[in-house]
Amino acid sequence: MLQIGPYSFQSRLLLGTGKFPDAQTQNQAIEISESEILTFAVRKLPLNNPDAPNFLESIDLERFHLLPNTAGAKTAEEAVRIARLAHQSGLCHMIKVEVIGDDRTLLPDPIETLRACEQLLEDGMIVLPYTSDDVVLARRLQELGVHAIMPAGSPIGSGMGLLNPLHLSFIIEQATVPVILDAGIGGPADAALAMELGADGVLLNTAVSGAQDPVKMALAMKYAVMSGRMGFEAGRISKRPYATASSPESGIPV
């Protein structure tokens, strides 16, 4: 069970809704993934024009928990404004805080992220910040009171997987809130590895929407997250530099 603030979820796979080739493919991928949390950029919704089409119209909103994000924000003030707009529109009580500090890598600005989270926590929102794999920043955000930490495995949409599993393991080791790997997943092995390391969940979008068969990839990611979590809970064997016989070495008739 994934617990984020007051909310409980069976699925540990969070799915982004952008960049799918069409609405039908998007809905089929969402359905087969069994994800309960869908994330999207608030700026891409025509909130000022209710008659304009948007992806929410094709989804049964009673079945999903929405996680709007503040993508596009470059300052704390921008992120807070976007988050409050989403909240006041009745879309959510949870918000994924993204404050981008570098246009090329799309890595977050740590100072502005902290500032935005502090303000939104004061508003009483459930706050999930997107961060780099900075161990100290993750701890500071926890001390601030955020409800989950969402470190990047590698740059957004890069498909490079986990570039720094060691730092991710450090973040998980000290975590007092859920750690959800966010960004950089390329294939099922990446998602499984994050879960084997002890992540509480995985958020991905491009790995599914950009796949040759998005629906089949969504299914693969569902099983990858599940198997990785089971592997973590089962407790893998320790790595050893030399072989260890799997057959008994004593009590064998000669």
UniProtKB/TrEMBL annotation:
UniProt cross-references to CDD domains, sorted A to Z: ThiG (cd04728)
GO molecular function annotations of the record: thiazole synthase activity
InterPro entries assigned to the protein according to its UniProt record, in alphabetical order: Aldolase_TIM, Thiazole_synthase_ThiG, ThiG
Keyword flag Cytoplasm: yes
Record localization: Cytoplasm
Pathway entry: Cofactor biosynthesis; thiamine diphosphate biosynthesis
UniProt record, GO biological process: thiamine diphosphate biosynthetic process
Occurrences of domain Thiazole synthase ThiG (ranges): 4-248
UniProt enzyme class: transferase
Binding-site list for 1-deoxy-D-xylulose 5-phosphate: G157, A183, G184, N205, T206
Record keyword Transcription present: no
Active-site residues, record numbering mapped to chain: K96
Catalysed conversion reaction: [ThiS sulfur-carrier protein]-C-terminal-Gly-aminoethanethioate + 2-iminoacetate + 1-deoxy-D-xylulose 5-phosphate = [ThiS sulfur-carrier protein]-C-terminal Gly-Gly + 2-[(2R,5Z)-2-carboxy-4-methylthiazol-5(2H)-ylidene]ethyl phosphate + 2 H2O + H(+)
Entry EC no(s): 2.8.1.10
Function in brief: Catalyzes the rearrangement of 1-deoxy-D-xylulose 5-phosphate (DXP) to produce the thiazole phosphate moiety of thiamine. Sulfur is provided by the thiocarboxylate moiety of the carrier protein ThiS. In vitro, sulfur can be provided by H(2)S.
Subunit-structure text: Homotetramer. Forms heterodimers with either ThiH or ThiS.
PANTHER family named in the record: THIAZOLE SYNTHASE
UniProt xrefs under HAMAP family: ThiG
Protein name: Thiazole synthase
Native source organism of the sequence: Baia soyae
